Amino acid sequence: MAKRRVEIPAMIAAIRRIPPLALIVFISCSLLIGLVWSIEAARSTNRHALANAAAQRQAQALSRAYAEQLRRGIGELDQITLTLKYYWEHTRGSVSLEDQAEHGMYPKSDGLYVLIVDSKGDTVSGTLPARVAVSDREYFRVHQAGRASGLYISEPYIGRTTGKQVLAFSRALRKPDGSFDGVVMVAVEAPYLAAFYDRSSLGEQDFIAVHRADGEFLAAKVGGTLDGNNARLFPAPPRFDQASGLKALDASQFADGAARLVAWQRLSGYPLTATVGLAAADIQAGADDASDHARQTALGVTALLAVAGFCGIVASLRAAERARREARVKDTYRLATDSAREGFFMIRSIADEHGEIVDFVVQDCNERGAAFVGFGRDELLGMRFRELYRGAALSKVMGIFRLAMDTGFHEDEFMARRDRGGRPLWLQRKLVRSEDALAMTVRDISDAKAHAQALARLACEDALTTLHNRHWLMQTMPQSLEAARAGGRQLALLFFDLDDFKNVNNTLGHAAGDDLLRLTALRLRAALRPGDHAVRLGGDEFTVVLEQVDSVDDVARITERVIAALGEPFVLSDGSRHEVHASIGISMFPDDGNDADTLLKHADIAMYAVKAGGKGQYRFYQPALSASLVQRLALEQALRDAVDEDQFVLHYQPRVDAVTGELRSMEALVRWQHPLRGLVGPLEFIGVAESMGLIEALGCQVADKVCRQLRAWQADGLPLVPVSINVSARQFNHGDVPGMIARCMSRHGVPASLLEVELTESCMLATDRPVADELTALKALGIKLLVDDFGTGYSSLSQLQQLDLDVLKVDRAFTAQLRNGREGMAFFRAIVSMAHVLRMSVVAEGVENAEELAILQDLGCDEVQGYYVSRPLPAAAAARLLRAGSLFPALLQSA
Question: In this predicted model, what pLDDT tens digit does every residue of 700-720 receive, in sequence order?
């Protein structure tokens, strides 16, 4: 007891020796720690409540989203059955699924196939590789017994050809008398239904599933894995009384023993229920993790507060340790800087009594820095700038360092001197202000500078020929032109390419073409004078810059020498001999332009003029050459931009029944929506597009626009008629027209019955097999073929018969002759009779008035097209024609 009495006063004394601030810090830290843990407990409770509410919302949202995905996916399968049922019943069984699959109308997938079976259950047509009998299948018996009036979704069963569990979506086929005629069926693998919804947010024990109305399990995805076996999920099929809902199910109701929050949603229009389950263990996982993280944070704060109190006690010890550490760091810094590749300086400013900086002194540096200046470190320390520099050098250095003192930072590069090998020593200098001093870092960048200069040289040199390149030309031409202008001299620019170079490149390959270009560069150098510059612009295009020019005759002589040098046969590395020639255009400074771009353009124009008059010659630029060529070049460039930017729009001109005026078809006519000129007609650009090779790309755009417009009209519920597309002979010769059109139809879901192709008579005159094959391929797609502007070419009756065409469109020139006498009517009657014998319809183009229409009706013409019916109209206006009855003006006025 006595010993305890002694300890208590000693403890009290020890406490009194503790500074009051330390006690305040201890009490404050204790209170703050208690407050932190109280707040964390309240927040943890709130996190778990929010996690449970969020899980309920997520489960309901997922079930609705999955139900909508199922409804859309099954709706697409249902649309296939409806479409096939319609065509089967209305074509009396004339449907070939094999042919449709071959033309890409069904996705190439092992998990989906389509069958049409007869009333006995035998396959009539299908996408399976083998015929199967399905009379024993549940769905067939249901339809045979008449127990399903619409789409029937079967129980899962094992497919005979795939060996996998599949589901059948089927409809009954009916004969005209309503009796059972078989079944059309789309079958998919059972997990396909779960694959409609792909969400990365599902946990390993979360699931989505689909059930029939009778509780029959169809498919599921558990934790991102597709599964067609309900044994992994439900021991017994679940039943939900309401159309949608949310329920927490305990572990006993699942095969894997994991409790879940389950939400379900019945599908609108189909006897299916979409189910989503979120694992109860995962629902609170996020809240638990957040609480664990918050507790770790609270522990960190507790530790931080405890350390903060302890820091006051050991502050003096740390101060002493800090002083010792700074000394060691200073010694280590000196060791590191002395062995570094960079130079380090501490430069202190010296100011006069007015505060103006009058000099700088080297306060500290390393050995490397001193070596850059040409001194040893001990020699350099303490030296002033006035001792190191003289005259202009001193003024320049003082200005740089004063600027750094004013701005706080300066960085530059400068050449200090040349080394013993004569190579310049380039240094990078960086100055940073620190109070009244500057910290300077100096680094040797000589290697980097030499590398940059080498790169700059390579950037101006053509890698293949070692001539100057376009970059060099555009960099140096301004200086050359300025020098010529200042000296009152002329300058000539020669522009040329190699005639027939493409023949070598295309027949012998790029290696031979490169060989020819290298030989061209060698001959070009030999033909020029010293001081002349040869430039390869790219491909087989070259430019020559002649700076020392006294007269046009000098330029002509040099040009003739170049043409002669390049006119000699070239012997390539493979021993073959080739003759190419240079067509050279010449522009002169200052007469033909004051800048490089103008001179190049004018030389280019002169070169094209040479090519138009004969190759292997030269010509000086004249302003008269520009007008037509510039206009053509501008049109070509604008047309390229128009194709790249899709500046084209379509107008539609109706084709109607010659007697009733009923709309039968429309012809798609392309127009160019020029950004400056407005709407440009096809006569101005179609021929140019063909000569430039742009007609294939333009044709693809037109076909795609037509299919997209048909799809849009169909979506608006308009009654559709076929739309014809004009295809030129060049497209048939250079493009896969059937493939292009098939891709457009597939992309926009347009049937072949809504597309027609108009071809010119020049297509019919083609004797090569590919054109005939492409026409046959178009017919195989189910697309009608029309002969446009018949009578303007040289097609024969036998060619019409051989190509199996559908419609003959008689050129407007023959329509215009109908009112000029009997001969015009007799000729037209002969065309109509000939076409009808060949089972071809006849369309009269260019019908302008009621008199022509009456004559055509008497002659038995089938359809008419022209301004009397309607001008070509934009899509919005053409849509109104689809709703109209007769389009004849007289009938429309009386309606």
Answer: 999 999 999 999 999 999 999
